[in-house]
Amino acid sequence: MTAQILDGKAISQEIIAQVRARVDARLAGGKRAPALAVVLVGSDPASQVYVGNKKRQCENAGITSIAYDLPAETSEADLLALVTKLNHDDAVDGILVQLPLPKHLNAEKIIELIDPAKDVDGFHPYNIGRLALKMPLLRPCTPRGVMTLLEKTGIDLVGKDAVIVGASNIVGRPQALELLLARATVTVCHSKTKDLADKVRGADVVVAGVGIPNFVKGEWIKPGAVVIDVGINRLESGKLCGDVEFDVARENASWITPVPGGVGLMTVATLMQNTIDACEARGR
Fold this sequence. Notes:
The protein has 284 residues and is of the alpha/beta class. It folds into two domains: 30-115, 3-Layer(aba) Sandwich (Rossmann fold), CATH 3.40.50; 141-264, Rossmann fold (3-Layer(aba) Sandwich), CATH 3.40.50.720. It has helices spanning 8-28, 45-61, 76-87, 107-113, 125-132, 141-153, 172-181, 196-201, 246-252, 263-281; strands spanning 4-5, 35-41, 64-70, 94-97, 161-165, 185-189, 205-208, 226-229, 233-234, 240-241, 255-256. The longest helix has 21 residues, at 8-28. The model has no long low-confidence stretch (mean pLDDT 96).
């Protein structure tokens, strides 16, 4: 068996086209384009790449992108003041503060200040709580993107055994809530999990997000399983790879995401979905 590739590039382009159609319909009806404010503090190279991708996709989707590029020494008071200003700006539909922030800034405090109705990253406790209670509004971008990829397999997730490797607030925890919402049976593994290999071997769906190159071994993958690799790591050679040992895993899986070209593109496309969803929910 050789797994079929879940092409994040093609699927993300479909999503962007759908968002663009919704934006065009708004404009044709005399309404304005949705607006996304992107706040970048400092000059972290990876963050600059991510923000650049978001700006390009805003242009493709017809969404107005408003950039706030702040110096690394920006004080917490100044950043909180900017978020407050954006909360009260009716011309702004979505607020994204790029993570990670410089160490002197409290990310949790910043995220909690964002208006939940403009929280297009889906990280505010209110939005996570809505997802936990099966009443989702704005959903975390990467887990929502993963669910879109899983839908493309055509596999019914009801009752399937899903194993998530990694328990971060950005991926693992909200991903578990998304899969529970789809009525899968979910196991979340982390650094203290015993017999990790055995747990992965029993999974119909594996979602890996630990940030360690090739951490999930291909031989652990159950024949016919769906493998979603959220990780993106740069090796000493400069080559990018995921958290899953791709070449071996592909021989066992039925579907698998590549790195690059998989989940990362879906995250940005989902951000565009969240932005127009936020705009329309606000009646703007």
